Amino acid sequence: MIELAGTASLADVVAVADGAAVRVPDAVVEAVGRAHAAAHRLSQEVPTYGRTTGVGANKSAVVDDDAHGLRLLRSHAVDAGEELPARAVRAMLAVRLNQLCVTGSGVAPAVLRALERMLNENALPTVRAFASIGTGDLGALAGTALTLMGERPATGPLEPMAPWSRDSALPFMSSSALTIGRTCLVVDALDRLDRAAAVVYALSFRGLDGNPSVLSPAAVRAVAAPGVGAVAERTRRLLGAAAGPAGPAAAPAARIQDAYGLRAFPISQGAFTHALGALNEQAGRLLGTAQENPLFDLAGEAVVHHGAFHQVALGLALDGCALALAQTGPLVMSRIGMLNEPRFTGLRPFLAAGQEGASGLMMIEYVAAGALAELRASAQPASLGSVVLSRGAEEDASFASQAVVQGERAVAAYRSLLACELVGAVRLLRQRGVGLPAGPLRDALDLAGALPAEDTDRDLRGDLEIARALLDGLARV
């Protein structure tokens, strides 16, 4: 059971996305109820966007009937494209429920209990791919409201709410909860792959007799960049004595200076680790922040009209993380090339076995190149886009919602890219008969024992599928 009270963590959102039940404390619901009453009073005294006016280019139109809220929800519940997976929808609902626990929206407290039931009964709204531009996930959340009221079918039985008033309509959908929720899932997946990448690198490093001086504290200090120290320390722990306190002289290296695939890993991966940390922090800040427009400043007795929903920082953090991830790809390709090259392995080309001219892992490199191409395409900055909407009332967009879609694509591509290296690293260690001492890297190799041992030419699709699945386990080594 996950308690949502405005203080949820990224891990909480992931847990709810994966099916955990939720609970909102009674005290929080009572506080939201008091804020709802105060917001209602303020909106009667001050012209209030979306409550006493229209929205978008209709913001100057005066509205004085309560059915305005239902009209807003029905008109804004528009989306198109493929249905999003239930996991993404649950992440959206978890984020929105947690945000609403922070008094500022003025929403009715009954909405919190209804969202709680929707999650716990797993009776979800249907959300489609196209609607958001990074200034609020209006279509997805308006559709959620209609589902809560029974105007749209849920994925399971759900007791419908009474029709909403204008006090709750715009406040509920004035959020980027879908984009933020999906970002949480992307961060969680990339964090696991980041840790798995160090394990896969360490296996390749050991099989290729890499020079450990690149992991030394002196080398790390010379980089003068964030993230490098954490990656180097993580890799030293995996390699154990090969990069221990005795220094590089403690272990033999095959080369005075390695190719970049081995030599620059801490630098390249460190940049990604740092960018991922920045994305994690920005997503975490948005989980428990009231960004509704208008915002009710109850302490100051004010209705605040603003543009805080413009998700520039989140879009840039997503773009930065995707760019940092993409620049790690060529070094993965470098290591795959080394694994296939007799000059580095002392073995047959492509780690082949059987008859002369066997292809071995030749096509694994082609698959990896395809994954790298997708990784690069996903790194095209979404923040460079712009659009003018609603008769010019909204003249820009952060496109953070597009950036998170590209982040999801990057996750899939990176998983395949690392899987290609893992298949080659394990085959190299096996063919060389390298014995690893007890420790985390030996644990990783034992886990990778699930990969087939047959090296003669055959269909390798299954090997890559096994390797993709192994990465989450390697992340825990």
TrEMBL record:
Domain of life: Bacteria
Pfam families to which the protein is assigned, alphabetical: Lyase_aromatic
Keyword Lyase tagged: yes
GO molecular function: ammonia-lyase activity
Keywords in alphabetical order: Lyase
Database matches in InterPro entries: Aromatic_Lyase, Fumarase/histidase_N, L-Aspartase-like
PANTHER family (UniProt xref): HISTIDINE AMMONIA-LYASE (PTHR10362)
Protein name: Aromatic amino acid ammonia-lyase
